[in-house]
Amino acid sequence: MAKLADRAMWVVGPLFIILAFVLIDMCVLAYYLVVFPYCHDWSLSEETSILGKLNMIFALLFTLYMVYCIHFHYYMAIKTHPGGMTKETMEATKAVDIETANNAQALLEYEEDAMYPKTCKKCHLPKPERAHHCSVCNACVLRFDHHCPWIHNCVGHFNHRYFVLFMTYMILSAIYFLVFGWEPFAASLDISGPEWPYYFPQPLMAFAYILSGCMGLALGGLCLWHYYLIITAQTTVEFYSNHYEKGIAKSQGEIFVNMYSFGYCENIRRFFNIGDKYPWYTVFYPVPIPPRGNGRQFEKCWEFYMLPESQQQGAILANQEIQDLENIKDL
């Protein structure tokens, strides 16, 4: 039954993408055909003040930027492979390996070889740390977070950044639409009132407004969750395993340390890959920016190495067990 459900999710994935584009672009049309002309004077008549003209130009440029960012990051989340251990994806990450090759990288690779399971029991390919097997895609995914039917793809190492930024721009745009579209929405509900002066149908305007509110709420919760995971250097899978390990450590009078966490600010910097090669403001650029590292080896924080050796080994073994359980669960 589980395999049948996974197969069905894979088959309907493209339909979810089409539906998402239709709903998003319907709200975009509602804004430009109703809300924007309602709030601004399209004609730019002589009676329109310079401040009013500047306000309209700013609103137009800002909303076009937001619309482009939404579509760009959604497209990149769909088209970017999250990372895996197939021959093709390993070739694609060679450039990253060469660029980051140094003594520290060599040490991490040796550590990964020595401590982490090397073969997935389902796809029989090398399985690095933080990788998990997705039963829907039937492949191991680097730094796996979850499989999202709305992008017909897994959220993993190479597309997690695009996925989070897509949600961020969607929420900001939804709030903007709700604030400035309130009066046109109220007018669209008055069917018996004055004649509707816009080409966009009244029922669709009302539906688009309600839809933007629902999408903002739904994505708002999910986006906040992912930002919590970002600042704590976890994935969704790791959150649940770490929560369990925290309970075990507390019962034994020990301190749990997330080996991948370097502090809130540093975790954000590492996730968005800013501060070293890419300046902080590039996070606002709708351009392809790769994540930090190759997704197969990860640095450990110094607090982890300060733990007793037995506790370090216990954390490593716990990660191994979680990876094995992911395999067994789907057999």
Automatic annotation (TrEMBL):
Enzyme Commission number(s) from the entry: 2.3.1.225
Localization, UniProt: Membrane
Domain of life: Eukaryota
Spans traversing the lipid bilayer: 12-34, 54-77, 162-182, 202-225
Classification via InterPro entries: Palmitoyltrfase_DHHC, PFA4/ZDH16/20/ERF2-like
Top-level class of the enzyme under EC nomenclature: transferase
Family to which this protein belongs: Belongs to the DHHC palmitoyltransferase family.
Name of the featured protein: Palmitoyltransferase
Species, as recorded: Absidia repens
